Recover the amino acids of this structure.
């Protein structure tokens, strides 16, 4: 099973700042990597798939990069609604696996 | 419009059985994988398994193999997950999702509470 490790577990940022979240795979997953945002009480929302392609309707301030074992999600100019939890997920090999999540908090 | 609508919240006692559902609409249900995801209280997301409704090809995550049964009825565009004997540790929100390259469409979640 491919283990996905996200870092940091939480970070404090200010609105308008840029943040970079990291996700590491225990083995290569090519570019079969997705990022999700989850707000309290809601289902996750797909932000990025294929490591760097924004899903339908996702604002351009969200961007993804990386391949194989190292991936990043960057959010430019944090908006108030962005202070929630983010998960990475590999879908290269079954079982698919999520990272444990990164919580972006308001400083 | 693609939609996945899940059945309502359930409160059960340990040892009871349960089957929850996820009905798809707005797309060809038989042609897309449906996944089930567990989220325990205050915790992260876990894939339970996936099913292809067209041929019922089903795969389980090792942690859930033997613990749940995933099925689908393509004639009514509905996927299911069922438990034969619930435990308190099954208390969680369960989501279904349509997965292609990532899960773009999600159900609203079904809260299952198992308590004596």
């Amino acid at each position: 099973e491919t283990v996905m490790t996200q870092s940091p577990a939480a970070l404090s940022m200010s609105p308008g700042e840029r943040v970079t979240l990291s996700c590491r795979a225990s083995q290569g997953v090519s570019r079969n990597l997705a990022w999700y945002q989850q707000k309290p009480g809601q289902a996750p929302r797909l932000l990025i798939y294929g490591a760097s392609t924004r899903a339908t309707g996702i604002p351009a301030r969200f961007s993804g990069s990386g391949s194989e074992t190292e991936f990043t999600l960057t959010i430019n100019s944090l908006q108030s609604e962005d202070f929630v939890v983010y998960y990475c997920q590999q879908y290269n090999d079954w079982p698919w696996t999520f990272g444990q999540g990164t919580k972006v908090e308001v400083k | 419009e693609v939609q996945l609508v899940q059945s309502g919240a359930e409160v059960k006692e340990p040892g009871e059985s349960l089957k929850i559902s996820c009905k798809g609409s707005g797309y060809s249900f038989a042609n897309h994988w449906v996944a089930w995801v567990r989220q325990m209280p205050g915790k992260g997301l876990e894939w339970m398994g996936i099913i292809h409704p067209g041929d019922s090809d089903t795969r389980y995550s090792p942690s859930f193999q033997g613990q749940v049964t995933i099925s689908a009825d393509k004639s009514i565009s509905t996927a299911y997950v069922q438990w034969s004997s619930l435990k308190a540790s099954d208390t969680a929100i369960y989501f279904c999702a349509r997965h292609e390259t990532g899960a773009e469409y999600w159900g609203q979640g079904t809260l299952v509470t198992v308590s004596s």
